């Protein structure tokens, strides 16, 4: 965390003015909202909502949108973390967030390896 906070990114985030932090924070929120919104659409379909919409029709756009949201949230999150990385070390929510991200990535990896997902099988 010392390295990240002392990096060029950390200095840039702290010294670029209040608007830089605000814009990066906004991008982070939009990235997280995009990720969760697209996952929500796919999860609702998997639970039987919108039965007329085929899973294969929803799968590609929602997965791409989720990937885009995750990428934006990850990049902006690193930028935000670099601002005061050493202060966040004592915050237990940082570790909960990292664990949740890791669990989500494991879930994506496991789901993408299932035969039903690869074949685009129709679920309820």
Give the topology, please.
Layout: H1 2-6, H2 8-15, H3 18-46, H4 55-83, H5 85-88, H6 92-112, H7 115-119
How would you characterize this protein structure?
The protein is an all-alpha fold. It has one domain. It contains seven helices and no strands. The relative contact order is 0.15.
Mean pLDDT: 88
**Strand element count:** 0
Largest sheet: none
Tally of distinct domains? 1
Termini separation (Å)? Answer: 46 Å
Uncertain segments are none
Please state the structural category: mainly alpha
How large is the share of residues in beta strands?
Answer: under 5%
Following the backbone from N to C, one meets helices and strands in this order, namely: HHHHHHH
Number of distinct helices? 7
Rg result: 18 Å
Shape: elongated
What portion of residues is helical? over 70%
For the structure shown, list the relevant keywords:
single chain, 124 residues, 7 helices
Write a brief structural summary.
With 124 residues, the protein is mostly helical.
